[in-house]
Amino acid sequence: xxxxxxxxxxxxxxxxxxxxxxxxxxxxxxxxxxxxxxxxxxxxxxxxxxxxxxxxxxxxxxxxxxxxxxxxxxxxxxxxxxxxxxxxxxxxxxxxxxxxxxxxxxxxxxxxxxxxxxxxxxxxxxxxxxxxxxxxxxxxxxxxxxxxxxxxxxxxxxxxxxxxxxxxxxxxxxxxxxxxxxxxxxxxxxxxxxxxxxxxxxxxxxxxxxxxxxxxxxxxxxxxxxxxxxxxxxxxxxxxxxxxxxxxxxxxxxxxxxxxxxxxxxxxxxxxxxxxxx
Length: 278
Description:
- The chain is of the alpha+beta class.
- It is 24% helix and 38% strand.
- The protein is built from six helices and 15 strands.
- A hairpin with a 2-residue loop joins strand 14 and strand 15.
- The termini are far apart.
- One of its GO terms (biological process) is translation.
- Keywords: GTP-binding, Hydrolase, Nucleotide-binding, Protein biosynthesis.
């Protein structure tokens, strides 16, 4: 399953969101949800879906049919965490991942993916799979001009824009099918996002060690674009434990105190403007 957090933009719509999810669940048994609280986003729900398409459909129905404006966190998958005390726990919410000192290893779900594509796009689709930590299995030609490429791929690498990239790189001609294989141990870490020194739990994510800097850099840059300026400087940091691996800073709003020195009078204020003219 794929999980994400749904938070209403207007905190007063929390009860409406709960009622809407309960109604949708009546005829959609695959939909799961439970309350979630965030210091940054307030009250919301952690929701489970069958896949990205299911998630997008539910979100669209909530917004269109129930007139809700929602904030959706990045989708994640279910990880298996092997703890130092011998226990194995499943974790779908990065903010609930056991501390580094209490976990021995993390396993991620693996899928077998088959991509069907015209032979002209074989190279670019293989490059896409390699960049998503894919393990090549086989390639065969179904016809003279059409090939089948098989990879083992972490499910977490598919819940983003993998399908969009596949369609874009093949100009819409490629298709894909995948099936769940099992779990595999991997070098995964928790990446935290700090805004003005405070951890924002809904923005936490579990990433592969080799991709931590790239993901952290992209998140901090995007947040810098989205967060409105304040009267003070706001640091935005991506951290692994206490180590900062990427950082951006939102500059403070500056008041132009010298405006009157250069004759920048407000003509809409008659008294001020007439006084300046004299």
